[in-house]
Design brief:
Layout lengths: L2 E6 L8 H4 L7 H17 L4 E4 L6 H11 L6 E4 L8 H13 L4 E6 L1 H8 L7 E5 L12 H12 L5 H4 E3 L2 E6 L2 E6 L2 E5 L15 E6 L11 H4 L10 E19 L2 E7 L3 E4 L3 E5 L4 E5 L2 E6 L4 E7 L4 E3 L1 H10 L6
Helix pairs in contact: 2-3, 2-6, 6-9
Amino acid sequence: MNTIGIIANPASGKDIRRLVSHATVVDNNEKINIVKRIVLAAQGCGVKKIYIMPDTFMIGYKVIDDLHISKELKIDVEVLKMDIKGNMTDTVNATKMMEQKGVDCIIVLGGDGTSRAVAKVITHAPLIAISTGTNNVYPEMMEGTVVGMAAAAIASSIFNIDETCYRDKRIEIYKDDQLVDIALIDCVISKQTFVGSKAIWDVEDIYKVVVSRAHPAAIGFSTIIGSKLIVGKEDNFGAAVNVNTGNKKVLVPIAAGTIREIIVDEPEILDLNKKMTFEASDNGIIALDGEREIPFKPGDRFDIVITRNGPYRVIVDKTLEYAQRSGFFNR
């Protein structure tokens, strides 16, 4: 269909972590500029239709108006007609609508939380995640022009999805054998008892961390494991570690510009599809990709499983290499 979707989260990069650390902030005007570059690059490479999620900052409308005024917009760009609530449900609903409309690729501007919201419902459209959040492990810093080109190459349907994408891992949380929620990068079990500002921050309150990937070059809670064990996105396993217990200390880049010394046990390898059970002895909360989501009370029992049921992630540079070799750029 040569159609793509764009989800730009105006709230990404605005949680408590930007106040208590030195995190990069991508403001909404820059998000507008990034979306403009995506639209123009995709248009230049053959995309015929683009859908954009509506939002409280009106990013999509501003992009369309600016590109009409500059006379650069030549294709149909439509802001989805949907009610907006200014929270995660907007991203979830927009993802569903875009897949129903048959988009060939979805581009997401946000942080780990925004990508997680998409991953909760995405089924078949390949995903490109651009980092505009606070602590980002899942999305990547990429130039909008390059992203628009890669999305156009995917939308041209000249490649097999297995040549240009890989299936991501995800962490699935079950209660009473029912899937409750997912995380893409990390699941943090904490003795904090309220949701509050969503973003988890106090390391002293953490019991356990479960990750689908971990590396010392990342920022955030996954590096509690990453400082001792590397778990790549291609590895068919994840890992877990008990925190604030044991006799080992590691230095962890817990936030931008913030290195903490944390007490940990040895990490445990978790093979794909293997259940890890957590039974609560106190009140607390489970944070998913840095955001507090699932409260629990004594006696609650959860099964945590790492699978390959995550989104199809576009490998941007590999996609453009395939495009070049296939003559996609020849005119």
